Amino acid sequence: MAAPCRKMASRSFSQLLYCFNRTAVGSVGCRRFSVTPVGRAMPQAGPAAERATSPWTLMAAVCLQRLPVISADESPIEQRFKQMMQQMELEKSVLSDHELRLIEDADRMSRKQAGDYDSDEEEGHGDQEIMLGQDLEDTWEQRLKTFQPAPRVRADVDKDLTSVQRCLADSLVLLAEQQVGAERLWLLPQAAWQEGETLRQTAERALGSVTADLKATFLGNAPCGVYKYKLPKAARTESSVGTKVFFFKAVLADSAPAKAPNTALLWVKKSELQKYLKPAYMMKVDRFILSL
């Protein structure tokens, strides 16, 4: 039994198929195997064959956000909760080092006034004058009176939509005025995709096209949203049906640009976007912009 198996194993795969075809000719419902190589059976695409192209124009846009610089104003319920937590912390906390020092100084002063005070307690200080805890508090009070906090609301700056320093307690989104067909629209900075680059590289180029001084940190390589629209029927062709815009998120990593931008720019809050964006475009953008 081993000899026939050894004989079969020594044959090539094409010879085995040939033998199988000869035995299966008389069988009903059996098809012959073809031993023709795959590369020879399938027609080879010539070098002049055109690559299949999509009728959609690809674009990439960047949603650049400036995060809040200062904390937002507290709501009434947040203020009540804050007061409750402070009261609980005060009741359950132990005395701090400064409070213990105040108690120690008060005890020392009372013993001095009663005549029951040992001057050897001050030998470690030498001739230096002892700074009491109350003296420190008085010094801190004087410094606090001279401190002037920066204003949280600046009416002149907050009304300037071109300033990145407006509305420091809110998150802002960058809009750029761009030419779309015969119209000039306010959009997120966008650019057409070029062969050989990734969509994120296209989004980075779109941001650099409006201003080269903005430093941004992109949040990943995958888009966070897509907006698709078709061209008017009169302008459609077989090779151009419409446009797909892929959005990428980024966070502003530096201050306002020093040079004048290449295009008109606006820094707006999420609640102000509907004044400048078209409804269909706004519906797609509103999904991935968070009000931080």
Radius of gyration: 38 Å
**How is the biggest beta sheet arranged?**
8 strands, mixed
Q: How large is the share of residues in beta strands?
A: 15-25%
* Oligomeric composition of the shown chains: single chain
Could you name the ranges where pLDDT drops below 50 across 5 or more consecutive residues? 24-28, 33-43, 45-51
Give the topology string: H per helix, E per strand: HHHEHHHHEEEHEEEEH
> What class would the helix/strand composition place it in?
alpha+beta
Fold and architecture overview:
It is a single chain. The chain is of the alpha+beta class. It contains nine helices and eight strands. Strands 1, 2, 3, 4, 5, 6, 7 and 8 form an eight-stranded mixed beta sheet that branches. Strand 2 (172-180) and strand 3 (183-187) form a beta hairpin. The longest helix has 18 residues, at 97-114. It is elongated, with a radius of gyration of 38 Å.
Element layout with pairings:
Blueprint (H helix, E strand, L loop, with lengths): L1 H8 L3 H11 L14 H4 L14 E11 L9 H17 L4 H18 L18 H14 L8 H4 L13 E9 L2 E5 L2 E3 L6 H12 L5 E3 L6 E6 L11 E11 L12 E5 L9 H7 L7
Parallel strand pairs: 1-7
Antiparallel strand pairs: 1-2, 1-4, 2-3, 2-8, 5-7, 6-7
